[in-house]
Specification:
The complex is a heterodimer of chains A (545) and B (180). Chain A has 24 helices and 4 strands. With 545 residues, chain A is mainly α. Chain A has a two-stranded antiparallel ribbon with strand order 1-2. With 180 residues, chain B is an alpha+beta fold. Chain B folds into 2 domains: 7-45; 63-173, Rieske Iron-sulfur Protein (3-layer Sandwich), CATH 2.102.10. The chains are: A mainly alpha (545), B alpha+beta (180). Chain A binds chain B through residues 29, 50, 53, 57, 60-61, 63, 68, 71-72, 74-75, 78-83, 85-86, 214, 222, 224-228, 231-235, 238-239, 241-242, 245, 249, 366, 369, 454-455, and chain B through 1-3, 5-11, 17, 20-21, 23-24, 27-28, 30-31, 34-35, 38-39, 41-43, 45, 47-48, 50-52, 88-90.
Chain lengths: 545, 180
């Protein structure tokens, strides 16, 4: 066996020289002091490969246009096997790569590994950092949900504030008057066609330079024999990669990446917030307003990048021990404090999210297809604690029968009689009579008749605001003029897809005085409590088209 | 470099080395599997069925193709219809067509409009009384049997039923491979 392998390797060596190259790469000599602190670069390259791999997989089922992007992503999340995992890996991988790149730079900075002759390696590294941030900026738009849309609006507006170049840059980003199809195409192309080849090229140059100059030694390394890269250091790199991958995989499985409502340019209540690693910039902008704004959008970020570029040309002394590099340590500490402070401030001052923003549209949304009456039935189902005796599918209580199958052989009249006098319909039952009025019982029966093993998840998933909103809807008899999901009358307009047609504030004002906002409307005015108004509008806004 | 000291392998002990190599390979294999298996499932498994009652699932759905009364026995007519189909994340409404033949005994057959060889559209040749596929010259008889050419099996047939004088088409059934 061994002879065969050797022969094959020899054949390949003669034809391509590849085995020799790999050997040369693996048995490179590195300073004796190298060890765990040098693993971050390898982890960053690995994460880049994960991003490329999962990115290609996502692109296989993704349509990069505003009309389709959102729906195709929903398709990936709800219908494609493993889609949620792949998207989770890509989403959390993006955050993780930022962390690892930052750790890599901090390590290099603290040890002064950018010093002569390694200035070029550092500069290429700074460019790679900018590219990494570029991925975050452009990838943010691609889900085309509200978060993506409004975040991108802000980014293009910031680009517009740059003196002289602003208008050109905005046009390059395709964000002339508003964010739309052209912006989308440009961001997508940047994300998948421009940034990846650039990154690969720069990573190649970066690694070439690392190899050319060798891993940066510590003072005193000259006195000790060098060691080989393989397998000791390769093991350390692989182990670090493995830990990073395990964390990433766990996050992708355990932490759900929400998908918000489809991008809604007319939504005036939406507060866009950037990804966590840009929060410090977001907060800086908040602190600097008016003529100072440009300091936050251009001057400070520009100064930071310039400082990073200039570092190896300012700090040109001989290599010294890390413990003696107090200035470098102070710089890192100061930057960390500044970054953490601003980020924390942004997190603390975050306004409470409204219920509408918390809906995860990537999840099972069976409840969205229920009529308001059926949805209100869920409220009674929960209030009467039906589930404490009636299990739903496996693992539930089995004191009473599984209600996901009752609709097959019972009708509404039977159920309502049964709610009122359980014993009369089923002699010997231990079920207590239900104390609800007739219309509430109708609601509960309507829901139970709709319930089947496939949509039973609606019971758990229907968010409270929707269920409560449906109660308000029922209590005010909205269905006698409007339709939701085909139920009701069409005297007034159908309420499906309301979110696309009207803004929240419009709807709220409309309740108070309908003819004022829609002249000729026959709708009577309604006065709701603030809580009911919130529930009803949020519910109405969650009903899909 | 200016370093004349010899380069030593790391680590020096051979057992430790073997352990390192094993660990590298083991972790690599684990990560490869953790990425590879979901990727294979993602690419090769059919997407979950869309939500129940999604319109356009052709299974069990009947579409109206046209009037039966207008058909002349043994004269195939191409009937066009519109049906909904689930296409990835969309339900699309698309045009389809079928070659419909009324037999002298009034029974009706509707053939799928694609040749069973490589899916080209075939047509009825009045002069020869045959279905002809122009791509590779497959010939089919009035009852869909292969007369000549590379077609591997007879023409596929739609499930049919007649409601109020209208021809309704159901699922397109693949014909069995055998041919007489």
């Amino acid at each position: 066996m061994k002879r065969r392998v050797d022969a094959a390797v020899g054949w390949l060596e003669d034809r391509t020289g590849a085995p020799g190259l790999i050997h040369h790469f693996l048995y490179e000599s590195i300073p004796a002091s190298s060890g765990w602190r040098q693993v971050f670069g390898s982890v960053a390259v690995f994460l880049f490969l994960v991003q490329a791999f999962t990115g290609i997989l996502l692109a296989v089922n993704y349509a990069p246009t505003p009309g389709d992007a959102y729906n195709s992503l929903r398709y990936i999340l709800t219908e494609v096997t493993g889609g949620r995992l792949i998207r989770g890996l890509h989403h959390w991988g993006a955050s993780m790569i930022i962390v690892v790149v930052a750790l890599h730079m901090i390590q290099v900075f603290l040890y002064g590994a950018y010093k002569k002759p390694r200035e070029g390696t550092w500069l290429v590294g700074v460019l790679l950092l900018l590219l990494t941030l570029g991925y975050g900026l452009t990838g943010y738009l691609l889900p085309w949900d509200n978060r993506a849309y409004w975040g991108t609006v802000v980014v293009t507006q910031i680009a517009a504030t740059i003196p002289v170049l602003g208008p050109y840059l905005t046009r390059l980003l395709g964000g002339g008057d508003s964010v739309g199809v052209v912006t989308f195409a440009r961001f997508f192309v940047a994300h998948v066609m421009i940034l990846p080849p650039l990154t690969m090229l720069l990573i190649a140059v970066h690694i070439f330079l690392v190899r050319k100059h060798g891993v940066a030694p510590l003072p005193g390394d000259e006195q000790v024999a060098k060691k080989e890269f393989y397998p000791g250091q390769v093991f350390r790199d692989t182990f670090a990669i493995f830990i990073a991958f395990a964390i990433l995989f766990t996050m992708a499985v355990a932490v759900r990446v929400p998908l918000e409502q489809l991008a809604d340019p007319s939504d005036t209540t939406y507060l866009p917030r950037p990804e966590w690693y840009f929060l410090f910039l977001f907060q800086t902008l908040k602190l600097l307003s008016g003529p100072l704004e440009i300091v936050g959008t251009v001057v400070l970020p520009g100064a930071a990048v310039t400082a990073l570029i200039l570092i190896p040309f300012i700090d040109r002394g001989k290599m010294v021990r890390v413990a003696k590099r107090t200035t470098a340590m102070a710089c890192v500490a100061l930057a960390a404090i500044g970054w953490t402070g601003l980020t924390a401030l942004a997190v603390v001052t975050k306004p409470p999210t409204t219920a509408a923003e918390e809906i995860d549209y990537s999840g099972p949304t069976d409840w969205m297809g229920l009529s308001p009456e059926e949805l209100a039935g869920i409220a009674y189902f929960r209030a009467e604690n039906c589930a404490s005796c009636h299990g739903m599918g496996e693992g539930g209580s089995n004191i009473g029968p599984d209600l996901t199958r009752t609709s097959i052989h019972r009708d509404a009249a039977w159920m309502i009689q049964h709610f009122k006098q359980p014993g009369a319909m089923r002699p010997g039952t231990s079920m207590p009579a239900i104390q609800l009025n007739d219309s509430q019982m109708n609601s509960l029966a309507a829901f139970l008749l709709k319930l089947n093993p496939k949509n039973a998840s609606a019971l758990e998933n229907a968010p409270d605001f929707a269920v409560q909103g449906a109660l308000v809807y029922q209590a005010n008899d909205c269905g006698s003029c409007h339709q939701v999901n085909g139920v009701g009358t069409n005297m007034g307009p159908s309420l499906n897809g309301l979110a696309k047609r009207r803004s929240r504030s419009w709807v709220e004002q409309h309740f108070a005085d309908p003819p004022k906002l829609s002249p000729g409307s026959m709708m009577p005015p309604y006065k709701f409590s603030a809580k009911d108004m919130e529930r009803l509008t949020t519910y109405l806004f969650s009903i899909p088209e | 470099m200016g370093n004349d000291l010899p380069v030593v392998p790391e680590p020096k002990e051979p057992t430790r080395r073997r352990l390192y190599v094993l660990a590298i390979q083991g972790m690599g294999a684990l990560m490869g599997a953790a990425m590879g298996i979901p990727a294979i499932a993602y690419l090769f498994s059919a997407p979950r069925a869309p939500q129940e009652s999604a319109p356009g699932q052709s299974n069990g759905q009947w579409v109206e193709a046209g009037d039966v009364a207008s058909l002349t026995p043994n004269e195939p007519v191409e009937m066009a219809f519109r049906r909904n189909r689930v296409d990835g994340w969309k339900v699309i409404s698309e045009k389809g067509s079928a070659w419909v033949v009324k037999r002298p005994d009034q029974s009706i057959t509707a053939f799928g409009s694609q040749c069973t060889h490589l899916g080209c559209a075939y047509h009825w040749d009045d002069g020869k009384d045959q279905f002809i596929c122009p791509c590779h010259n497959s010939l089919f008889s009035l009852d869909g049997k292969v007369l000549a050419g590379p077609a591997p099996r007879p023409l596929d047939r739609y499930e049919t039923k007649i409601e109020n004088g209208k021809l309704m088409l159901g699922t397109l059934r693949e014909s069995s491979g055998s041919q007489s």
